[in-house]
Input
Amino acid sequence: MTRYTTRFLLSAMAAAHFPAPSVPEIAFLGRSNVGKSSLLNALAGEKAAKVSSTPGRTRTINFFLLSDEKQRPRVMFADLPGYGFAKISKSISAEWPKFIEPYLQDRPTLSLCVCLVDSNVPPQPRDAQLLDWLRSVDRAFLVVATKIDRLSGNERTRNLAALKKGLGTDDILPVSAKTGAGLKELWGRIEEAGADEAS
Ligand SMILES: Nc1nc2c(ncn2[C@@H]2O[C@H](COP(=O)(O)OP(=O)(O)OP(=O)(O)O)[C@@H](O)[C@H]2O)c(=O)[nH]1
Ligand SMILES: [Mg+2]
Output
């Protein structure tokens, strides 16, 4: 597996601030506190993204550039603001779509949306809505179920089945940023998406 080094590029609050499209990009999406920043760090093998002590912390799209051993840029990670956190003021949560939806819809280099759902929580309408919307704009996505380390084998099977049913997809990858479970498979899917994009 390629060893990447990760560099924080910038935080964007508007399309004008996005980095110029270059390498295949992977967006990390999900409810606040679901584990987006933790997963991104676990994949990158370093603490690039800030993990929240207070949920709802990430308000910008944070871009990270991953380069290979020869310092060649290979893949971009985009850590998106979480949605659905009650304490976020109405106006900010109403703001969410204003720059996120155009990003998800129009970003030319976006090769995969990694949609995170908490494996400890039943399927959420807001997550189902997001997936429906991604389907409607024809954007490739992969659902990952986070924090799988908190579940016993039986709970895991039961919760994954409920998520598959509730979200209308059979393709859900269980992961843990804490133990590293599923990360190798996720890297495989990320590299596959990037390769598709390049071809
Ligand atoms: N047990 C366990 N806890 C996790 C895992 N991933 C994340 N967490 C915890 O979940 C909390 C939220 O993690 P973040 O990575 O900050 O979540 P986020 O989705 O980036 O949150 P926002 O930026 O606020 O939207 C933190 O307390 C993490 O330590 C995991 O795989 N296992
Ligand atoms: Mg975060």
Observations:
- Residues 36-37, 52, 58, 79 surround magnesium ion (ligand 2) (CB under 6 Å).
- The first helix runs from residue 36 to 44.
